[in-house]
Design a protein that fits this description.
By secondary structure, the chain is α+β, with helices and mostly antiparallel strands. The protein folds into 2 domains: about 100 residues, no CATH class; about 50 residues. The protein is built from 4 helices and 8 strands; from the N terminus they run ββαββαβαββαβ. β1 and β2 form a beta hairpin.
Amino acid sequence: MGRTAVISAILIPADEETPISLIDIDGLRDMQRAVGGLIEVMDIDRPDATLVINEEGKLISLPMNRRATLACWTHLSRWRGMDALLGDVIIVGRPNDDGDTTSVPDELVNLFFHTETYRIEVTTISDPDTWSGNQRRFTDVWEAYNAGQVLAHKWALVDDVRVVPA
């Protein structure tokens, strides 16, 4: 990760009683403060973004971050069911061509902060290019993420999951 200007990030606290928030990040130290230590990054897809986690989360026994884990498993399907994210997590944009971290994509800001009703869509192994959904709606984004992961676990043909505005 290169040098950064002030960017916006989504902070997902491990404590589910604490709401997620949109925060300003001004460089590496702010990222480290947000996650409580040294950072490790993971790129996610749909949309392209980066999760910033505490590199030593397991070593120092940070609590599981269920919300960030659900987001990771949804936006990075190959991680589904593999591991949990620990401690507070931030989401930023992918680095630009100069290697500078960018602001979290507007698509995620809109999904987390400006959407009232959600639905889930999936692709299947037999039809990986077609997103399909049903009439089920959710008023809580994390309930939608959880339902998508439950569906993927129960239905072996699910390839990818996404949460979208209804």
